[in-house]
Every structure is written in structure tokens, then in C-alpha cells.
Amino acid sequence: MTSTTTRRGRLFLREPLPEARARVFLLPYSGCGASMYRQWPVLHEGINFCPVQLPGRENRMREEPFDSYEAMADALAEELLPYLDRPYALFGHCSSALAAYETALRLTERGAAPPARLVVSSEVAPQDGPYGRFLEMTDAELAEELRDLLVGMGGEPHPGLIDLTLGVLRHDVEVNKRYHVPEPRRLPCPITSVGWSRDTGIEPRLMGGWTACGDTEEVVLDGDHYAFVAAPDALLRLFTDLPATA
Fold first, then answer.
1. How many CB atoms lie under 10 A from the CB of residue 117?
2. Percent composition of the chain: helix, strand, coil (DSSP 3-state, to 5)
3. Cα–Cα distance list, 155 to 14, 22, 30, 151 (Å)
4. DSSP letter, residue 126
5. Contact 73/175 with Cβ under 8 angstroms?
6. Using an 8 Å Cβ cutoff, are 8 and 71 in contact?
7. What is the torsional sign of CA 74, 78, 79, 82?
8. pLDDT of 61-78, one tens digit each?
């Protein structure tokens, strides 16, 4: 196996399906790895949902995490290229929405086919941040959030796992604190901004700034901040109009 193949293999817990008509690359939420999307279908109406594994978490725990969304996007724009042979979308929730936006920018700048859609969930636009209750939380408060998230994912909040993950989450929070783009560049692809009706952290009304980043459709779905973890049908339907050919 070549070093290039090995490097690409670490990007996903499972390789994207060659028979899929389109792909959606799912970027993990702060403090989490690709397994947070384990409740999402692998294939839905011909669309392959591909959770991305980032350095510094789960099976890549020994690797250094990215210190900025820009650096993350630079790496992802290179690593994703072999998988852009069909229409694709990017999805990010909360802080990973910002990483998804930066990745879409990098891919476009490098001459790759732009995403058919960028879907951002529960996050303010780049020029309106940093914003969010996580940014001022103590480690104890962040640990409690991790417990809630792990339970929502169907996991067991073991103290050792919480301690291990807390350092990743604290690092990701600091990355978020440093990110602010006063004048965001517009993307050539459509954006869907997804707010959640019972989200008390990022209320849907705070997401209007995404219109500065590209042609944006604003959607509000029923649920709280963590509702996306269960892949509700209303969220999956946002991807079903992806074209069948690139």
C-alpha cells in the first residue's frame, strides 16, 4: 500500500462507495470524530454520506489537530480531490460549518468542481463570530456538554472517555475563538443554512449572515442543538436534490 493510499484511508472510517450517484462529506462537531455520524445512513437515495475523520481524534488521536479552520481547509481540499469525481456536498454543524465553508472556498480556488451545495447547521456566519455559549464555558461545563452529546449519540459517557475528549474539545473551542472573517468571500455554490426550532445556543434568527457568503436558502427544522446527530428525515431531504452527474 502506498503512503498516499494510507494517508487517504485515514480520512474516512469507511471508503466512499463507488456506486453512489453523489457524496456528502460530513465534518465532525467540536471535540468529536467521524463516529458521531454513526446514526446517519451510509447510502440514502443514491447519496453516500461520508463522515470525515480529522487529526487529533479517535483513530487519529496521535496526530496533531489543526490550529485553524483555514489550515484544516487547506489539507481537506487536497485530500478530498480524489473523491470529487461526482456531485458532492459539504455539511458542518456548529463550528464545523465554518470549516466546511473554508473548505468550499479552498476547493474553488484550486480549480476543483465546487460543491453542489454547502449545508451549514447551527452556526453564525464567518463575519458574525466568534459566537456561542461553548466559548466561555469552563472545563467542567464542557465535560457536561460532552456527556449530553455522547448520550444523544447512543454512547456511554465513561469518565475516561470524557477526560480524553475534553482536551480535544478545549482545543477546538480555542480554534473557534480565533476565527473571524470581517468580509467573507462569496461561494459559487448554493448554501442552505439550517436552524433548529429548539436550539437555545444558536437561535435560527442569528444565522441570517450566511447570505453574505453566497446564495442562501434559510431552513428551520424541528429539534434542539443535537437533533442533527440522529439524521432526521427532514435534514436528509435537503440533500436529495443533488444532481446525478457532475
1. 23
2. 45, 15, 40
3. 20, 30, 17, 5
4. G
5. no
6. no
7. positive
8. 889 999 999 999 999 999
